[in-house]
Amino acid sequence: MVWSARLDPTQLRWTQFWVIECQTRMIACGQLRSFAQAQELGSLIVDPDWRGQGLGSYLTNHLIQRASEPLYLECLGQQLRQFYHQRGFDTVSWSALPASLQRKFGLSQLAKTLVRLPIYFMKYQA
Ligand SMILES: CC(C)(COP(=O)(O)OP(=O)(O)OC[C@H]1O[C@@H](n2cnc3c(N)ncnc32)[C@H](O)[C@@H]1OP(=O)(O)O)[C@@H](O)C(=O)NCCC(=O)NCCS
Fold first, then answer.
1. Does 106 contact ligand 1 (Cβ within 6 A)?
2. Largest CB tally within 10 Å, which of 63, 92, 117, 125?
């Protein structure tokens, strides 16, 4: 699912994932990656046949509740920014990210600066 959605293929450890299944088929997933003094909500994907029915929101809320460190994410495009904003995340600047996530998001920041890709870094505001 992560590869087909063209999302970040790093740190795909199954113990970090939560999934939703329907009749033994995985239809949605999301994970929490751990860093020093931070976690990242990542790999949020809903099978295209199941979108628009609340599964993405449900998983996002679940991951928020399971997070034990300040929670961040990166996303591409206004639509996703809006999706996460409505679920409690605010856009933060590069300088506001913890050092561990600046390292993780380094390439994204480069693409954002050089190619002007609409990439947003966001933090959950408890
Ligand atoms: C983003 C995504 C997880 C939403 O899942 P979902 O189950 O359809 O979400 P819900 O039904 O809970 O909520 C629907 C909301 O998602 C928005 N949405 C639908 N398709 C979307 C898309 N491709 N990108 C961003 N947001 C999308 C809708 O506008 C709707 O917004 P609203 O709450 O203001 O009405 C799903 O579209 C997806 O898997 N996208 C591809 C993978 C991806 O980009 N993941 C995010 C990585 S940061």
1. no
2. 63
Kindly state the average pLDDT of the residues 25-54.
97
- pLDDT of 115 > 90? The answer is yes
Neighbouring residues of 1: CB distance < 8 A, sequence distance ≥ 6: 26, 29, 43, 45, 47
Rounded CA-CA distance 80/119 in Å is 10
Is residue 126 predicted with pLDDT exceeding 90?
A: no
**pTM higher than 0.85 for the full model?**
yes
Are residues 57 and 41 in contact, defined by beta-carbon separation less than 8 angstroms?
no
Domains of the chain: 14-124 (3.40.630.30)
